[in-house]
Amino acid sequence: MAADTVTTFGTVLHDAEGRFVVSLTVFFSVLYDPLMAKTLLIREVLSWISQKAEMREGYSILLELSDVDPFFDKKKILLNDMGFDVKEIVHNKSSLDRDSLSTTLNQMLQIARIIHLDEVELYFGQTGGLGFYSPRNEMEAQNFILSLIKSALSHHVRMQTHALQDLRDALINRIHELGTEVKVENKIDINYQCDKEKCLVQWAQNSGAKTRLQIAYVEGAGRGAIAMEDMEVGDIAMEIPASIIISEDLVYKSDMYQVLEKIDGMSSETMSLLWSMKERHNCNSQFKMYFDTLPENFNTGLSFGVEAIMALDGTLLFEEIMQAKEHLRVQYDELFPALSKDHPDIFPPELYTWEQFLWACELWYSNSMKIMFADGNLKTSLIPVAGFLNHSLHPHIVHYGKIDSTTNSLKFRLSRPCSVGEQCCLSYGNFSGSHLITFYGFLPQGDNPYDVIPLDFEVDQVDTMVECPLSNWTTHMVRGTWLSENQNIFYYGLPSPLLDCLRSARSQMPFTKTLIKANMEVDKEVLEDLQSTFNGMMENLSDVDSVDRESSSWDVKLASQFKEMQRRIVSSILTSCSTGIKLVEHELSKCKAEE
Questions:
Q1: Are 115 and 75 in contact (CB under 8 A)?
Q2: Beta bridge pairs of residue 368
Q3: Are 59 and 163 in contact, with CB atoms under 8 Å apart?
Q4: Which residues is 22 bridged to in the sheet?
């Protein structure tokens, strides 16, 4: 006979050295055979101790895909295909060798990459080995895991801390490796003194700002922020107190607010813009030092002249600039000269011309940031000194949009290391070159994965893809095929969702990506149609070689650079189509030979 019941209640404690001290209270009742009861009790206790020790010596980290993610269904499929769930718990022992540690980190990165995919990355898929999508995605995934480790370190006991620290060190090494791969060498123009900028920095520091960066003139980028010392992941490169941030709150304290609040549809952003037009000329302004550092001309696409606009004919940028300028002109005409006539003391006509309005629009488009203040309100703001941080496709600073309620300041924390003498950059957003030219006035260095060409066509999507449920997209796009490493049959360096959509329009039979005659014929038709479409697009993009870059104005040069980039993208697609057709024809010839 065995013991009728055996119930154990226990807790595991740890001493200063991390050793386990087991505290148990055991209740049991014996109906018969005390020796058998003792045997069962010992087994129960040993099993319980083993489970608790294993749990305490190891650690677990939860990686979760948010159920409100706009691409939840597609990401869930990707995770499931890799053997993961939307809520994946990674378990590890307290001691791992280098290979096991690397395996664990790779597993976590695979999940984190998918969680942090944006629309473009999700559409075009992987661009390299080991699940790599883009430098942006990789840095987001790495820093996401770093934040989870940091949180775990604050809740675990000493033996777990050692294991988590090992994982953190391995991840930091990965971040360093990525930083080395994407590091850009910049040349500083020592002849540019930056006197006004230095005065602004001193003014900000007197108000409580802190910075480990200095302002210098970077060739090809204009003014930028240069690291004065080596900085690591997590270090704060710059800290700006909320008291010197320019936001809508300043408008509410001004005399123009009582007028503007009565206008239907008047946004806080437009109020701030109108406030800055007047404050710019206020000699007694608290922000005089800031306005003194601003350029007379911002040279964005909104200021393109007729020659530059004409040079863009046939491009997406032409439409984007024309639509933006038309929108701004309509907005201006709705406000002026009416406001100046009705309230000349508040809106002096000489300060509210179309040229002044356009300047202010360019200021706020190119320099403002959306900041979450301590009161929980999101406000479009101008940040003195931080405005010198330039955009990069491989930024050091990614997350910077929230006021720290403890210090009431905006902190710019590094997501990857920045070496002394290196330009410290942030991300303005995942924008295409056309958007960056229109509202910021530049094209970034390197291959921008967001330089896409949207395709405007309608195809009745038929659910015929048995191998790729991720192909169900309502909009389609292309980009430079040099960004894709898969130029093989059925892929051709082109986006799979686009190819699958076009295949489904040509065949009601499931397309299984097998080397059979019917599939080859469908792919040949798809590639020939794409080739025809992009041949026509290339014809509309006139050759840019005729433009004299040396004597041209800044806007014509920038327009020519954009057009050249567009031609390069279209050319790569035509090359991929041509190469793909040859691949398909080769396979078709093999099929015929077998017949």
A1: yes
A2: 382
A3: yes
A4: 12
